[in-house]
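Lab manual, section 2.4: Encoding a predicted structure.

Procedure: take the sequence of the chain (369 residues), apply the prediction step described in section 2.3, and record the output as structure tokens. A sample record is shown.
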Amino acid sequence: MAHIRHPVGNAWRGPRTALFFVLVLVLGAAGSLGAYAADAIGSVTYLEGSVSMVRDGTDIPDVQIGQDVQAFDVVKTADDGVAEISLTAPQLPRMTIKLSADTQFALEVATTGDGKLQSTVSLLGGQVALKVAKLLGSQSVRVQTESAAMGVRGTEFSVTAVSTGDVLVDCDEGAVAVTDDKGRELSAAPGSVVEQRPGEAYQTVPVAPAGLEQFRAQWREQRRQFLEANALRFIRVNAALYRQLSREFTALHQELARNQSIVNKWAFEDRAGQVGSRVEVLRERRLMGAQLVRLRRTAFRLERVAFRLERLQALHDRGIGAGSLEDGTTTAVFFAQVARERQDVRRKLALTRYLTKQFLRRNEGHLPE
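Recorded output:
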């Protein structure tokens, strides 16, 4: 477990050292969450192979059956890993989430503007299958990918997001409303799927229920072949996005360092299981809300680009997609840079998620707007 270190003299001055202090505080807070034991919303009920989690900046590398799951945890399966998570918190709908191999997702729970408690499966990449009990009027469930959100009404369905950026939504029972990033709504139900092919808009495709499993397998194999055949193209696209988003994210975290006193205060309050006075909370929400909106927007995209780049690097290591980027940088040099920055990016992502969690506790469960 990491331990809190206290600033001595001028050792923590400046944006980079201030940010490091913030991260140390968060990691220290993550080890003392006994006051928030009620935060457990479910548990791991089945797994095979390697499964890990990240909670409040702390890695849980060897997840076992029975491991509790909290809102804003990130769950990861390795190439040999599968897992099943059951959500059992009384305020949430009964739900089972199955993760296929090489999948990552985060689970957010927040109150929407109309007062519903919304559970969001934020899929970074891979495949999740959900079985959701009938929802109460006060409950909402959705799955979110980079380019679409799936609204659920008591059903069994799966969502696949592959490294080409394409998405497949198929449904065994009930119906799923798929809203793409242009605001168009389509529906997946038994007998049809919703998919996005490379460079195309989302569309509904008829698939007989008896042939759904075969369709899924063929769809994934086609995407794998397409990715390998166009690996350099995808590396270039994602490299440009990564450079843009990582610059934005670094600048936003430098801005965040200006509110270091609030971040430190939240971390200490988290350890004590408390929040500040009403006057303090109002001030802190005002100062942190707009920053968190921007941080979350950039983190959402950066996390998915980073996921894709790790898979593209695995191909690159096999000699697939080697070449040069648009500015002449070799792909080998670029991936070496990404590897050096990976831990720092992960820490910043974890801090963003942790601060969002703390903001919810001070904003009646509502996300910053």
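Check your result against the sample. The longest strand covers residues 117-132.
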